[in-house]
Design brief:
It is built from 9 helices and 13 strands. It is an alpha/beta fold. A 5-stranded mixed sheet has the order 3-2-1-4-8, sandwiched between helices. Strands 11-10-9-12-13 form a 5-stranded mixed sheet, sandwiched between helices.
């Protein structure tokens, strides 16, 4: 009762941190009840906290005793599994070195204990209240589609892809794809002029086969009831077309082809690994957090024969929305 009274007297400050390729984005909202009084975003040319970032964050953190600092998990050793039964998780990951939480009764997300401690140590001068999983962000973003379709869902960040396959809200497969650990040679990258891109061999497909939130690993509830973000429909998707003229560098081309190759490889694993119910998938929904080129959509459509829908996602705002939902439960 006293806490609720204090909350009504003070504003809430939500500080959200996302590490990008060579910089860190910090997005802050100052809120009173359900109204956003102020929002500010700033990028810092560092991937670790420095004096400028510290001073910027502290200037807002001291405005209210109800300040929540959130970080998007970047651990390469994270993922999601199609079960929430601890004894079954060992089939999919090394649960002994991971922390996990159930998103629903049917699936869970996990991350490396070591990397979680590293995040808390890095931000020890300001403190971290929530460490969120990109799989949770993606599941919230595509909630209406996940609940009603058999499709792939992918969240695109600078160096990572959160890849999943859902069948009417049931997770069938998930993998966190790290672009930094996949060299061009490993992906057999070729220019379109030299050779055609390699697609999925459909004859090999077996058609018969089915917030990470760490508040110091306490006071965590399942996230089924978290607020759904804006409605998603094909009519509102950002339809990226090949005809659109875009100035794409060789690096940009390479990165989108690399993303395509990782998605292709993950889908083939889903089809071939006996642990998974490899149902045939024809549609992919992409949450684009960085601004991919139209080439990625073209690769997926022309080489994998997928129906592709791309929608922009603001990672900072989505992280803030998750923090708000979690803070309401405290």
């Amino acid at each position: 009762m006293i806490t609720n009274l204090l909350k009504s007297l003070y504003t809430k400050v939500f500080i959200n941190i996302i590490i990008e390729n060579l910089q860190t984005a910090v997005y802050i909202e100052v809120c009173s009840k359900k109204e956003v009084l102020q929002s500010v975003r700033r990028n810092f040319e560092t991937t670790t906290i420095n004096t400028k970032m510290y001073d910027f964050i502290q200037a807002y953190a001291k405005e209210s005793p109800f300040c929540y600092i959130s970080v998007l998990d970047k651990s390469p050793l994270q993922g999601a599994v199609p079960t929430c039964v601890t004894s079954e998780m060992g089939r999919y990951c090394d649960i002994n070195s991971s922390e996990y939480r159930c998103f629903s009764k049917d699936w869970a997300f996990y991350t490396s204990e070591y990397d979680l401690e590293a995040i808390k140590y890095e931000y020890r001068t300001i403190g971290v209240d929530f460490i969120f999983s990109p799989f949770v962000m993606m599941a919230n973003f595509f909630r209406d589609k996940i609940d009603t379709t058999l499709s792939m869902f992918v969240l695109v960040e600078d160096n990572y892809l959160s890849f999943t396959v859902f069948d009417n809200s049931k997770l069938l497969y998930a993998e966190y794809l790290d672009m930094k650990n996949h060299k061009d040679d490993d992906l057999h990258m070729e220019s379109p002029e030299e050779d055609e891109l390699e697609g999925i061999n459909l004859e090999e497909v077996n058609l018969e086969n089915d917030s990470m939130v760490f508040d110091d690993f306490a006071n965590i509830e399942e996230l089924d009831d978290s607020d759904v973000l804006d409605e998603f429909s094909e009519a509102n998707e950002v339809e990226q077309t090949v005809e659109k003229k875009v100035d794409i560098s060789h690096e940009g081309f390479s990165e989108d082809y690399q993303r395509f190759s990782l998605i292709q490889s993950a889908l083939n694993t889903f089809y071939k690994d006996s642990k998974y119910d490899g149902k045939f998938v024809e549609t992919i929904y992409i949450a684009d957090g960085i601004g991919v080129s139209p080439d990625l959509k073209s690769y997926l459509e022309e080489e994998m024969f997928l129906s592709v829908y791309v929608r922009k996602i603001d990672l900072c705002i989505s992280l803030c929305d998750m923090a708000k939902a979690e803070a309401d439960e405290i």
